[in-house]
Amino acid sequence: MTKILIANWKMNPQTEKAAIVLAKACDAEGVILCPPFPFLKAVKQAIKKATLGAQDLCFENGGPFTGEVSALQLKSVGVEYVIIGHSERRAHLGETDELVARKVAAALEAGITPVVCVGETRDERDKGQTREVIDRQTRMAFSLIPAGGGQARGGNKQETFNVILTYEPVWAISTNKGAEGATPESAQDMINYMQGIVRGLPVVPAFIYGGSVNPENLESFLQCSEVHGGLVGGASLKPAEFKKMIIINSK
Ligand code: PGA
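# 2-phosphoglycolic acid complex -> structure
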């Protein structure tokens, strides 16, 4: 079964031309490509099988928010998924749990599936706070969804919303040592815990793992029944590696 492979390009590559080359090389079923904002349209035009995602959005729908990008603007260029609450935004750009909740609500209202990232830092893990952090971040992220569903922009009443929840321990990101501690078993264990947290909410969640996912460890994560895919950073910028991951995912 093909699971979800989300390519988080972060602030790469540096030219539209390079983005198009990368997109064409990584174009496959089950893949969600998340390029930087300026390349969304070009990537959309370059892909035939993959789906388009963005790396962030504004919590408001329009107005005086210099530099921000709204859910409706993303939707108008073909974005179907948006990463929200990535640890790099939480750490470097002051993204709070409250902001994450507003962004999730904005995405859902526009009919874009949020890819919500939660995960503990090394320090929090060492202090035994992992579950507490995951619990808080997950609960808060969905705290502004109206109980019983809501009105999707564009008309129809939705009872439940599709969401992707990513367990991405901060200490496992960009280490190239995904197996150092974030083993498939520990990812599955945390995902089981997260399943309990969202139970009862009007969401239909898929759970994925992120943090140094690469061609060597992908298969072991995908073999876990509750892990529906991976969020891939560094390896998604290397076509040879990402293509190997596409093949592993299609087996
Ligand atoms: P990584 O990044 O695969 O390079 O660890 C993942 C992420 O930060 O989303």
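# post-check
Strands lie at 4-8, 31-34, 51-54, 81-84, 113-118, 150-151, 157-158, 161-167, 203-210, 229-232.
The chain has ten helices and ten strands.
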